[in-house]
Specification:
This protein is an alpha+beta fold. The chain has 3 domains: about 70 residues; about 120 residues, Immunoglobulin-like, CATH 2.60.40.420; about 80 residues, Cytochrome Bc1 Complex, Chain D, domain 2 (Orthogonal Bundle). Helices cover about 45% and strands about 15% of the residues. It contains 8 helices and 12 strands. Copper (II) ion binds next to loops.
Amino acid sequence: MGPRPLLILGTLVALLASPAAALAGNGGFGPQSPASPNAEGIATSFWFITALVLGIFLIVETLLVVFVVRFRRRRRPRTADGPQIHGSNRLELAWTAGPVVVLFAIAVFVFVKLPGIANAPDATASGGALEIEVVGQQFFWEFRYPNGAVSIDTLRAPAGRTVELSVTAPDWDVIHSWWIPRLGGKIDAIPGRVNTTWFEVEEPGYYPGQCAELCGLFHAKMLMGVEVMSAGEFDEWLTAAGEAQRDGDPALGQELWEGVCAKCHGALGPDGAAGGYGPKLAATTLADVNTLENVIRNGRALPGRKVMPPVGRDWTDQQLESLYAYLEDELGDQS
Ligand SMILES: [Cu+2]
């Protein structure tokens, strides 16, 4: 073998080795390991299509290389035409039927998988499905549980039970997208519209996600996650949170402050880091409950420019009380 074929062979081997690296783990282009049946359906479809695509790629590239070598010019003069070949019914039928079969296989596979991805299973066992409202806002996620409890950015859920999510955004806000990769596909949070999705997780743990629709300057701060606990732990938490939040709960207040206020305005206190957007809030401003409520409910606008969205227009009084309770605790400690 001369130097040129060696070079070609070397390049080929290198190219064939690279998909292995690309496919390895979550650092590659594969989906994250699924933890819910709908995510499982998405991942299986992904790998089915990937296998077909890689197979076709190998066949096409191998043929290409074989033809390049076999039908190379050799000693024919540059100006001479190669042999003229016309028509081959069998070949033409094959390259028409082949892609049809491949596309049909993909369509059938996906349509078989789709109901298991889109529809939550009928939850007759274990107390039926748990329904949670998910509201996407600039720049946080709010979760409302059946007993009135609220949490911010971390959705808590029981293991082994179907959780159905109604995903939306308030009228004055923009479109966001709910996405916990290990628990299913993306679902848009659209102002004035309710989309539904679901998950069911067996393993307690934390499943991180992120807003998947560019929704403004602090889009990247819309991180969220699902904290899955055992059914007993979850029931305990939900009951306790529901009761505590009725009269203002500093724990929820902290979630509200950190999830809603601090992302733009920075941490509390003179030593706290400044926010990336919006002024750092002075303790005196935060202690003035009336001003605070007005800004939270109505936002702030300068002529022709929206400065701050009305983040808490839909908040319950309990949510405001919770925020005040937290601020009171914190600011009291600092003075
Ligand atoms: Cu968003």
